[in-house]
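Quick start: read one record
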Amino acid sequence: MFTRTGRDVLVNGATRPVITARTGRTRLRLLNATAGDHLLLALTRDDEPTTAHLIATDSGLLERPVPLTEILLAPGERAEILVATTAPGRLTLRALPYSVYGPGGQRTPDRPMAAIDIPAGLGPVELPAALLPVEKIDPASAVRTRRILLDGAGDGTYTIDGRTFDHHRVDLHASLYTLEIWEVENIHIMDHPFHLHSYAVQVQNQRALRWIAPASSCA
């Protein structure tokens, strides 16, 4: 399921719109609604990176804000960030160069996507210290550990455990109200987004990723 990346990425239906901040801290709800663009997003001021705080992912709020200077969103992925908007001037939301083929692969261009104009006189808004309590899952209570292998079939399609998608087939069975550990590994040459519908998960550990999701986040 290879898709072509777009020539331009629109933001709320517009090309490089300008947003005017109204308070000293602005909440941005980010959704990558493209068909095939992986967006490595960053905020810059005068071409210098600006720290934002991640407060939510696909499944909702985190326990506490997490500082970051960039965040990678695969197609269909969401995130919410808080941005300090007290210093007058302009912030630029940009898609940084990124390769789905890993280091050394062909990268997308550096693209400005939107701007945030900050007028003078906006007072500071305190960053919340805590957001939402997240109950930690105990791995010892898992009834099963599964290994999920992501790869490609060589004809432009992706596979999971060696098989392409078929909506007439059920690949995995699990018992209701039980906990499982899934060890997911991508051995394909390209990025392979992975998520579950309707079922919350907690990330126990990750490796070989440029952006590491907070341990308390769910997908």
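The chain is about 0% helix and 35% strand.
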